[in-house]
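Figure 3 (text version): structure tokens given as input.
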């Protein structure tokens, strides 16, 4: 019975490289999360696993930006940045598919000028109400600035504003037209800026953990939250950004791919992109960020983080 269920789930796997003009917004997915919107800030409810995951996501964003600063501006500037809480001060940061605002609030506390967007109006309502009750986020003396907007990435990209950091966490596995969605997110990044993603690999292990166990056995999340065929493998993201090039400012010069080189095991150089596994540790209830080297040994077979940088000249 289990093998039959897995075979049904694996039917209709979508190709990531096939982009189209179709919207990435899936109305059924939006309706599903809109029904759950009132539960976003219940740390022991439907989104408990995301509450546990959020500190690890924030840790990775912080550490990666500090690492790049070390590389580009030297050890002294990097060490100074390590001592600061507001490592995102002065940066424009976009949270695509912000949900109830778990990540958006954390980014703002690190000093970012944060815009959180979501296609669900009820999600934006919950996120706005929660942020308005926190003096640290609403005070004129706060380190960052937080604004929410009920819109999707395809609409936002039509405006001229671009962002130093774009995040889209646990969203990619819920959209239609993933290649189009990735292209839109990429175009929202400033030259030299950063794109952070968090999603789920399409493997037998991920089916067992995220669908069979989390939805049907343990009831940690609502049945139907995940669709196996929508999961994206890390290698597919690496392949996508190895061929994707932002439009060049000079029409006579082709744009530069975001990933220009990979190693023999298929992973990119750490200054262009990175894959890091996220492992849930049930006896502690926390998520562990796996080392860079562990990725090639299967650490990203279920949940993982992906970072890629837009070329400075594109």
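Below: residues designed for each position.
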């Amino acid at each position: 019975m289990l093998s039959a269920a897995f075979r049904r789930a694996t039917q209709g796997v979508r190709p990531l490289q096939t982009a189209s003009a179709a919207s990435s917004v899936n109305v059924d997915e939006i309706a599903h999360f809109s029904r759950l919107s009132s539960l976003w800030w219940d740390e022991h409810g439907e989104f408990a696993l995301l509450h546990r995951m959020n500190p690890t996501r924030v840790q990775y964003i912080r550490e990666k930006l500090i690492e790049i600063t070390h590389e580009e501006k030297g050890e002294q500037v990097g060490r100074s940045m390590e001592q600061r809480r507001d490592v995102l001060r002065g940066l424009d940061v976009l949270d695509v598919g912000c949900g109830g605002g778990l990540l958006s609030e954390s980014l703002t506390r690190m000093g970012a000028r944060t815009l959180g967007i979501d296609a669900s109006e009820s999600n934006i309502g919950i996120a706005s109400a929660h942020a308005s009750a926190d003096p640290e986020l609403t005070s004129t003396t706060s380190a960052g600035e937080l604004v929410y907007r009920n819109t999707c990435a395809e609409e936002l990209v039509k405006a001229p504003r671009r962002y130093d950091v774009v995040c889209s966490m646990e969203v990619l596995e819920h959209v239609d037209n993933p290649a189009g969605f990735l292209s839109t997110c990429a175009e929202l990044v400033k030259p030299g800026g950063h794109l952070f993603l968090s999603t789920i690999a399409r493997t037998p292990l991920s089916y067992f953990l995220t669908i069979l166990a989390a939805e049907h056995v343990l009831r940690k999340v609502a049945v139907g939250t995940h669709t196996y065929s929508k999961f994206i493998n890390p290698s597919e993201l690496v392949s996508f950004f190895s061929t994707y090039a932002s439009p060049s400012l000079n029409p006579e010069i082709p744009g530069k791919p975001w990933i220009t080189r990979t190693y023999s095991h298929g992973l990119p150089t750490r200054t262009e992109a990175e894959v890091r596994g996220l492992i849930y540790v049930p006896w502690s209830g926390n998520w562990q960020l796996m080392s860079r080297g562990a990725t090639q040994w299967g650490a990203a077979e279920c949940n993982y983080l992906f970072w890629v940088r837009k070329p400075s000249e594109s």
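The longest strand covers residues 189-200.
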